[in-house]
Amino acid sequence: RATQYTCMLLSYLIEHKADKEKLAMKLKQLESSMSSGRKMFRLGNMVHALVAARRTTQLPDVVPRFCLTASNLTRALYFVCDAVLWLKSVGLQSDVDKPKWRNWATKCYYFSLLMNLARDWYEISWRLEQAVQEEKTKEKSFWDKHNQDLNCVKCDGLHGFLLLLFQILKRHPPLLLDLVKNLCDLSGPLDTLGIYKTNPGVIGFCGILSSLVGILTLASPHLKLKQ
């Protein structure tokens, strides 16, 4: 995934240079090959998404339960559409309406990301509320060193809110990384669906950043936001 988006970004950066046309074409071909390869490797992910959806239905908190279950179910539908597109790309199903299936896949992926972001915002809101309550109930003369920065932030106005939000995300790296990844992943479907048009350079950069976050959470599981 990181390789695919790196090729997308590099080809965008050099495609208008006269002496780099062949290299840009090779990068685009490599990007296309990586995309097809990823579709093949994702054929089993639908089962994984359904299993994850079944697991998230057991969560005790209603908001994460709804958001994550809806996200996993729509992600499973996305993988179904993705598999159909793969069959079209390898010539096993030539009568597939590619634009229609690609549109369905993008919508499913978009909705899945929105549900993930809703879950992230719920986690942030819960921690913000918790921090404000701690600030109100703790006497100033007994501030401890661990919460001093957080307690010094006044929550009046946008500036205070942003400072408090910064402290929350700083103290919870898994939540920050999950938020960054979901926001970066959103650039692709927003462009494809015409909601917010960008360019391959932006999509490639966001894809690389999202992929690096994914690699980091795989290498260090404690940085992955727990369901």
TrEMBL record:
Keywords: Membrane, Peroxisome, Peroxisome biogenesis, Transmembrane, Transmembrane helix. It comes from the Eukaryota. GO terms for biological process: peroxisome fission. The chain crosses the membrane at residues 201-219. GO terms for cellular component: peroxisomal membrane. It is found in: Peroxisome membrane. Signal peptide: none annotated. It holds the Pfam family PEX11. This is Peroxisomal membrane protein 11A. The lineage of its organism: Eukaryota, Metazoa, Chordata, Craniata, Vertebrata.
